[in-house]
Amino acid sequence: MNQQPSGREDYVRKVLEAYRNTPGTCGNLRRPDRTLAVELYQRGVPLHTVENALVLAAVRRLIRPADAPPLATVRSLAYFTPVIEEVLETEVGEEYFQYARQKLKRLRPS
What we know:
This protein is an all-alpha fold. It has one domain. It is 59% helix and 0% strand. The protein has helices at 8-20, 31-43, 47-62, 81-89, 94-107. Helix 3 crosses helix 4 and helix 3 crosses helix 5 (94-107). It is globular and about 45 Å long.
């Protein structure tokens, strides 16, 4: 996690950068992704909440049975909206998300 964004453009840039770097995403950005990032800023969703949601969703996608069919590549930031809402509503401590980040580092394909 990086320091707090200095304004709307910095927030949007950091959200989109976090999305692009999330395992399982295509890495391409589209106009709707930028629009959603602006909406998250306007709603006052903290950057760390978005980052935590991306990590949580990525870990969930990677921890699957070995014989499960492969998941399609995520092509939109909107895919993560339900997880962002979940993280906003949860009372789980930051330690859990730190654990999830460590888990993601171990699971991330090289």
